[in-house]
Amino acid sequence: MTPSAIRLAPKVTTFLGLVTVVVAFYGAIHFIHPFYTHMYPFAWYGLILFIDGILWWKWNESLIFKRPREFVVLCFWSAVFWFFFEMWNLRLENWYYVGVTDNPIWAHVEAYLDFATVLPGMFLIYRLLEKLKIPGPVTTRQLSVPHMSKISLFLGATMLALPAAFPNYFYFCIWGAFIFLFEPILARAAAPSLLKEVLAGDWTRLIRLLAAGLFAGLYWELCNFWSLERWVYTVPFFSEGKLFEMPYLGFLGFPPFCVECFVITNTVYLLRGGRHWLPEWHRRQRSRAGGKTIYLALVLFSVIFAEWSYDKMTYHTVDSRAETIEQALTGIDPSIAERLTAKGLHYPKEALHRWEEAAASIPENMQGRVRNRLVLVSLLYMGSENARLLEHVGIDSRDDLAQAKASKLFQQLSHANDRLQLRRAPLLERRVMSWIVAAQRTSPLY
């Protein structure tokens, strides 16, 4: 590359990242494929490219272009880590996915692509905060806590055991347990350790990680709100107060989650011969004898584990697939769907957004039924299978659903599905509750 091209590259990278983010949101809001149907990878890889470009432009530091190997490694462990939390969700049942593509190959690939953004996204936000010195240094006097390592390990083990035993009450512990479990290991191994920094009176890195987690969480939920392919929360006791799709108090989970991912990453990187995604920590610590072999075995195990987790996730956690107008109106006059598609209306929510135009192609005596079906299908993108189940038990509209009682409706739907077999996986009462709450909802903030 010429010197001028080298100087221009960071600016181009920053610009392309920003454009990708803007186009992703515009496309999702206006129902443009593939941004509406697959917003997440566009929005997050765009943000990652944008932040990496700023770091390259202003500080001559780029994880993607100057250290691509570390970027790929970080993406790999990002996917593995999130599949680990998907395994925990089989017990916690705190979220589920809707609007997932019905192409099994692409669904598989996209799961890895999406999950691969978790660590790079959070850590690059953290790195930008660090470069900008936001917040400034936060220090206190040194702390002396007798038996700190033992206390930390006890807290970590307790926080891991409680959600496993009592998921309805202690689910939140999973978003911090590994901080306390792994920090003593890092401190003893003379590796980068937040615990050592805090005991030395330096809280700066910890607070910046907490801030990065909060910023990432806000962006996650903003992306999730506009996309067809999304997740829905079913957190116990917090179903009726949400910003976008996240319970208000749920945003407090993102800061410790960022810290936890940072600590887990540092622990895994102990086996990498001192390699690290942070330039100043790269090759600071050498792995012990046999570390490389253990690391390679861990990689192999992680791939097998991720595939197992994906298989369980697709059955238990994915609740609906992305549907066209034709699929959404299954069981209703197919000619109606053909006419709507001919008008350029491809998705249920798009038809509702342009209802006056859509209604002109629907016989007057069918307009109410078609609109009610589209509303149900689009509600949390539950899909036509769930909408048809609701219709079979007498829930024909959003108003009907808003007045239903979760426990009673759950029993009715379960019995109906035993007869009709519309759903492959069992229905969960929490998901029925999420539909009812969504039917009662009037705005993104409630």
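[next item in queue]
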Amino acid sequence: MSTIKAKAFQHPSATSNNITFNSDGTHTVNAAYPTTSKNLIINGAMNVWQRSANATGVNTSGYHSADRWAHGTDDLLGGPLGTWTQSRSTDVPSAQGFGYSLKMDCTTADASPAADDFLLFQQRIEGQNLQHLLKGTSSAKKVTLSFWVKSNKTGTYIIELYDVDNQRQISKSYTIDSASTWEKKEIIFDGDTNATDVFDNDNNWSLGVNWWLGSGSTYSSGTLNTTWNNNTVANRAVGGVNLGDSTSNEWYITGIQLEVGEQATGFEFEPFEAILTKCQRYYEKSYEYDTALGTVTFNGAYYDEVGGTNYPRIQAHYGVRKRTRVPNTMTIYNPNTGTAGQMYIWDNGTNRNYSLGNTRYTFNSVSTEGQNNAFNLNNRAWGAIHYAADFEI
């Protein structure tokens, strides 16, 4: 009896995701780059939008729209640099495989920023995801940042890597050459070989990848720091445009990839569910994906039996283990009324709405308790909650 070995057909010497498929059915992995998760950026193709696909009136630091992408501005000293709408756009580079971009649209201009004003588009990365960069050693690795960008405002823009653990940074410039035209940018950053300036190996914020979209003189009055150095604030954003100087201005971005090496490789496309899972480590809601917080609906709500007590308790298990045990913010909603800070109880035919008391957390769940309302709940009682939990860095 003969044995037939089947081989999946590949075009001779075809290459995909850094794997070369040979004509004899074997394949060769390019060892210089990983074949999966080479991208240190999460949601670089702007696929996941759990919070909102259209966030208006954005003028405070934080997460408002696309998952893992923060809006950075001066909430304390000089004030915000403009007011913005962040929206999910289907305007994308042609024939590149991207479905969405993030659009920044200026709705209130700031043509003369105060000294401490600034505007950043930013992703924050955990230190434990950066150890392979060997930062702070003689073998520190170069990284390449690539992305697609488009704006009606041409000119020089600044991109920065900021080491939060050691207060060090490096800035580079790029130009938008043609108005309202998609352009791909590839920027190489040297490794930081300064001894002992390593990233902490933990779940906290170690690296900020910052697109400067405007700044006052505090951040731009020096000389642009294009090599790793201790932070000198005046050298961070020198020479960059002010995108916030007109309500006509808009800025689009997608296809963001940060990878080891000094060559930009093809964008690493991942299944939607894989990206969503990564994002839910930092933010998760029980509502269905496209359902707004506070909506009156039981779809996705968590249920628990609560009979025989005046202090009903409901435990909800997260879909993904979280970055930290205690969230930055946790809001509980009543599925029956949409009210925040309240749970719903069905008590043998009677609807009851409880204000919340104690809330307890694990990495995998939240347990919340209703305040005593002097009800003697029946053994057939059950309760339900929705939640939205933020574990961002």
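[queue empty]
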